[in-house]
Amino acid sequence: MTSVHPVSDDAASVEDPLGPAAAESAESATFGEAQFRSVLGHFATGVTVVAALDSGRPVGLSVNSFTSISLDPPLVAFAVAKSSSTWPRIREAGAFAVNVLAEHQEQVSRVFATRGADKFRGLRWWPAPSGAPIIDGVLAWVDGVIEAEYDAGDHVLVVGRVRDLDVTDEGGPLIFYRGGYGRIER
């Protein structure tokens, strides 16, 4: 959902806060999906697992589109595919934990990126203050509640209010770059 802020009663003077390109349709793009993925794949991201409790059972999914939004109030955001079968369960829980994966947790990311598996099988975790799972060995965690959701094409953009957070390890992060996992060399 894009908010539109009129600057006068004249419909021609309505400004789109995302700029003129946001008003154009997808058909006006001069590139294909493969090029879009290739170009944006050159932007390295960290890797997280967003997790919650669903009827007392831990559920989660890999997310690399995680970012901080605001310090006051403390807000974070992440994007989830609309096709996700896990997201509705996290949404229903209302509270979530973002687990920032360490460089040795590539397999954890891969498991949480799959559909239908018992993703927490064999993983040690403990509850955040909200009860949401914090996976053993992560670099940091953020405990939050869902504040808002916005339609974002084939994804949902989720904004969460941070209730608690902490750093649990000073090691290196797991990085996702050009379709693969990497680490930061120091």
Q: What can be said about the biggest beta sheet?
A: 7 strands, antiparallel
Order of helices and strands: HHEEEEEHEHEEEEEE
| Number of self-contained structural domains | 1
Beta-strand residue percentage = 35-45%
Instruction: Tell me the name of the CATH class.
Output: Mainly Beta
Placed side by side, the strands forming the largest sheet appear as 3-2-6-9-10-5-4
Distance between the termini: 41 Å
Helix content: 10-25%
Layout of SSEs?
Elements: H1 20-23, H2 33-40, E1 45-46, E2 48-54, E3 57-63, E4 66-71, E5 74-81, H3 87-93, E6 95-100, H4 106-112, E7 125-127, E8 133-135, E9 140-152, E10 155-167, E11 175-177, E12 180-182
Antiparallel strand pairs: 1-11, 2-3, 2-6, 4-5, 5-10, 6-9, 7-8, 9-10, 11-12
